[in-house]
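Field reference: sequence -> structure
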Amino acid sequence: MENNRPSQEEIMRQRRRQAYLERQEKRATRKRRVTKFFLFLLIFILVFIFYEQGFDFSKFKFDFKKINFNFLKGNKDKKTSSSALKDNFIAYIPMDDRDIHTTRLIYLADSGGYELHFPDTKFYKTNIDAGENSYAGYSTKFGNPSKLAKFLLEEEEAGCDYYIISLDQLFSGGIAGSEYLDDEDFEVYGNAIKEAKNAFNTIIQKEENHVYLIDSVVGLNVIPGFMDFTKEDAQLLLQYTSQDRAELMGDDVTIEKISENYILKSDGTSIQTDLNLEKLNRYLSARERKLTYYDYVLKAISKSKNKSNIHIYYGIDGSGVASKNIQNNDLIYLRHAMSEYDVNAPIRVGLSSLSEMVFGELLLDTENRSYVAAVSYYGNKDQKVVNTDMTYPQAMEQLLKDMGIGTSGDADFHVLVYTGVKDPALQVKASEELLTQYLKNIKNHIPTVIINGAEYTTDRVLLEYLSNYEATSIPMGYLIGYSNWGEFNHSSRIAITEGITRSIYFANKNYSTSCDKGFLKVMGESFYEDISYLSTDKSSNELRTIEIRMEEMSKKITNNLQNSNYIAGISPYEEKGIKQIDTFNYSLPWSRVDEISFDVTATIGDTHDIKIPDKVVYKDPNEKEA
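Structure field:
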């Protein structure tokens, strides 16, 4: 059967076209308001002149009641809006073209009524296993800093005041590029790196700009398939980088000393490897290059007159955080550079989900009120979060503090955290306690976020209870945030950002059907990927096979949502029904089966008459009654 579904590229073009048309409409609306104002002013001046000249108004009939002053009222409403972003837009350079950095952010922006501008996809696309980016006469597998620099300057000229920028993309052509490329690799673009630096400096120097930067600490490995690195190469490199190095201190914390230390064990002897030395040297050269960029970026921020409006986060692969591997001295150097340039930049485990967190922080920074989250834990909350030395409450406290969300006072939403447990009986108990609280929240009109921190291969009770409407009658649609994406550091950021975006929407009361559809797409993305796709057999990366499996696994989710309402407003409280929701346009970024890419379509329907259960009861729909 012929596949008539639009490609990812076509969908992105359609979205950019829609954003362009919306901008044109906004400009036209502003123009009409200005025209009305000057017409009013002209009438006022003429009346004044006629009065001063002794004009006989008794012979002149003018009905002021017919003058439409609504445009003035509209301006007043906008000025009192609690979000400065309603009159502006966000320019965004993603880490790469995966859904976690693109589609999810697009849906989030749509759900809040925000305008998010992307550069052309081919300028930030990473091609791993097949295909290349072709532009300006050159073929590459990574992004184009020169074109991204041009994009930033064009957005600045268009009046943009808000930016989210991946420095890996701007200076290295993406995450993969930052692990393997150096400045010489960008010579095909001429002055690409110079242009990227100039654009970066222009953006951070403007005092009206609010700039949010995301950068990485180079991991212990490279992505197989990028350039000429094979899976076998990646395994050999991981063995090499995981070995302990001597920890440098004091005057030895220099780029030269760290580079020399890359090839030595902690006892000072050379590290042996069967990895091709040319490939190893390219990787080590990329690490060294990244150290120079820490210096460059932090120094530029420290000298900016706009320093207080520049926020930077560093993400690090959590697989080797606790050891003294090749990352350790890089981290020491980064912290020394922060101290030297007096720049406070949190370093957080997990990189991919920082895009969501930074987006949420940006939204909160534009609000003229604070937001509060109540948090409850189910399972063993005192166990350590994977790849950290923090318990679940400590990790949540850090995340909420990073984003600027309070934890005391009247809560805007309730966060239910499932930590996961090993004992099957306790899995049932903790899951039922969490979902009982969720049902109470629905009845009490309390917006709820669920963060599922379980290991899905061994702890699937919460997934099954939540998604299987036929068995539990628990409607998922009332949630305003959900995630089980990757490890807890990722899922917590994604779910909290979804929750805070919806809470801001409720508080601002700028309700619209298009925002509601964006919200349903946000939640659909989380439900279908974080529940349905988790359940699929990933032994094959053949796309049609995965699509068939996804369609089968997604039936429960679709059935649940189409039997559910969602919260459309808080004050006054309002619910609406979900008529239809579906996924399409499946793809596998980088031909890897640990992530899937797809689009979501949603239609709002009539409000369902739903009876919310008093307690959680699982009744197997396939089990025959006695």
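Note: The first strand starts at residue 90 and ends at 93.
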